[in-house]
Amino acid sequence: MSLSTSRAMFKPARLRLSRQSLRPSSTTSQAAEAASQSGSKAKAAASNAVSKASEGLSKVTSAAGPALSGAAKGAGEALGKATGRTGRLIKFVQSIIPPTIYYSRVGIELSKLVFHGQKMSPP
Fold it and tell me: Can you give the pTM of this predicted structure?
């Protein structure tokens, strides 16, 4: 008796099943339905996250807007009188400040959403 034949005899019957019998029986319609359900769930979660982010950003912008504009107005008037290279540098820096503040707030709000979504605590 060969080695492979003797091994087959000693295997339990449940392990000798063919690969066909081990495969789950699913149809393409069931798979398509499951895919559409998971896609709709993902779309709902994404729209929920976007609405939360825009809501949080609007709260931050409305709360900090008046205080920053008053402080920046006084400093801007004093620095706006500079001319030459220094004046150009000051104008350049002043033009970069608003987008920097905006994107830093967006990043903070986005990181909050990620931390809460992953059930982590911020550092």
Answer: 0.33
